[in-house]
Specification:
mainly alpha, phosphatidylglycerol-prolipoprotein diacylglyceryl transferase activity, transmembrane, Phosphatidylglycerol--prolipoprotein diacylglyceryl transferase, Lgt, EC 2.5.1.145
Length: 341
């Protein structure tokens, strides 16, 4: 007898089915919002700023995630166009979501007069906790899992709780809970971010780069375990390179099956490697060329505001100081006009 699996439908309202997948994604977005609002207070940013960013960013992320997935599955969706809109059945790509959110965020942040990298640094933990929680939507849907594995490996070797092991029994065969691996990797990255973001060595833009580098490292190794990877036909040397980089994992894991009809290179695995390299180059280039002149803990000011740094003061104190300087400047102008009169 197969273990009882979870119902992907949480509840119904009339004929409307509310899926756990959407609820879990919503909880991830809410947790991310709360983190950003709390950190934003240190820099004098209002909760409304992040709420509006979320309201614009989430739809953009969903559209980007779905388009990314659909483009790589176009042979299917060309014949089933209405299925493009069935995101509650799964089929969204995290890198597409990130692209969509960043494009939207760039224009929104710039329109408010802030520097893009300063705000993305604050949002980095929000993105990680959103992914950490959101992956459990894949758990409920029994999707995005890895290759076949023995039940004893999950229970006795990895000591995974029974409710997860049971859900990983798909049609009588147990699979790697890759959603869990990725969720735990995101949790570890979140803890590291909470530690390093208070350190003064961190420059503007580097916390966000740490996030994408950290996530992409984990994604590179976890992606190869999956059996549903988006893929393309690349040169044999590239496939061999990716396999060689992944080879240390063979001591414990085996790669998931990749249908040769899809290709020989996993798209997300290659993209993860490129993002890691790009992130490292970004940090080194800005440091070497002197472009990384702001620290993460420096106050965030709008374009046109004057910043007067004071040694050993906190970010919140520096933000207040900036506001006081701006107000004082305005008062001086008014007094000057009165004197002239």
């Amino acid at each position: 007898m197969l273990p009882l699996v979870l119902n992907p439908v949480a509840f119904t309202i009339g004929t409307l089915e509310v899926h756990w997948y959407g609820i879990i994604l919503g909880l991830g977005a809410l947790a991310g919002l709360l983190l950003a609002v709390q950190e934003g207070k240190r820099f004098g940013l209002s909760p409304d700023f992040f709420l509006d960013l979320l309201l614009f960013g989430v739809p953009s992320a969903i559209v980007g995630a779905r388009l990314y997935y659909v483009l790589f599955k176009w042979d299917f969706y060309r014949e089933h166009p209405l299925d493009i809109f069935k995101i509650w059945e799964g089929g969204i790509a995290i890198y597409g979501a990130l692209i969509g959110a960043l494009v939207c965020g760039f224009f929104y942040i710039r329109s408010k007069g802030y520097r893009f990298w300063r705000v993305t640094d604050i949002c980095a933990p929000s993105l990680l906790i959103g992914q950490m929680i959101g992956r459990w939507g894949n758990f409920v849907n029994q999707e995005a899992y890895g290759g076949p594995v023995k039940e004893s490996f999950l229970r006795d070797t990895l000591h995974i709780p029974s409710f997860i092991v049971n859900q990983m029994n798909v049609q009588g065969e147990y699979h790697h809970p890759t959603f869990l691996y990725e969720s735990m990797w995101s949790l570890l990255g979140l803890v590291i971010i909470f530690i390093i973001r208070r350190m003064n060595f961190l420059k503007a833009g580097e916390l966000f780069m740490f996030y994408i580098i950290w996530y992409s490292i984990g994604r590179f190794f976890i992606e190869a375990l999956r059996t549903d990877s988006l893929a393309f036909q690349g040169p044999s040397w590239l496939a061999s390179l990716l396999n060689a980089l992944w080879s240390p994992m063979t001591a414990v894991f085996e790669q998931g099956y990749l249908n040769p009809a899809y290709g020989n290179v996993r798209t997300s695995q290659l993209l993860a490697l490129l993002i890691v390299l790009a992130g490292i180059v970004f940090i080194v280039f800005r440091r070497v060329t002197g472009r990384a002149c702001e620290r993460y803990n420096d106050p965030i000011v709008k374009r046109g505001q004057q910043e007067v740094p004071v040694e050993n003061e906190t970010a919140a104190e520096r933000t207040i100081h900036v506001e006081e300087v701006t107000t004082a400047t305005d008062n001086d102008i008014e007094n000057g006009e009165q004197t002239k009169a």
